[in-house]
Design a protein that fits this description.
- It is built from four helices and no strands.
- It has helices at residues 10-15, 17-26, 30-43, 50-61.
- It starts with 9 loop residues before the first helix and ends in a 10-residue tail after the last helix.
- By secondary structure, the protein is mainly alpha-helical.
- It has one domain (10-62).
């Protein structure tokens, strides 16, 4: 089976036994670690899909906004 991504999801990280051991050794509560991960995820820029990249590239070449405005 081939993985399509390299990073763990938040729920995977919270269930990972090695991460749990490190958290215990450092005296970090699982709930605090969860909050840290969720806060970081909220602040992170979303990754563009290949279609989103194409739309952004076309829009910049045409000197248009990346998201069409209707109205």
């Amino acid at each position: 089976m081939r993985k399509t991504r390299d990073d763990l999801t938040i729920s995977e990280a919270l269930r990972d036994p090695l991460i749990a051991m490190v958290l215990r050794a450092d005296g970090v509560k699982l709930e605090d670690f969860k909050q840290l991960l969720e806060t970081a995820a909220d602040k992170r820029q979303p990754r563009l899909t290949p279609v989103g990249k194409m739309i952004g590239a076309l829009a910049s070449r045409a000197n248009l906004p990346a998201m069409p405005c209707f109205g």
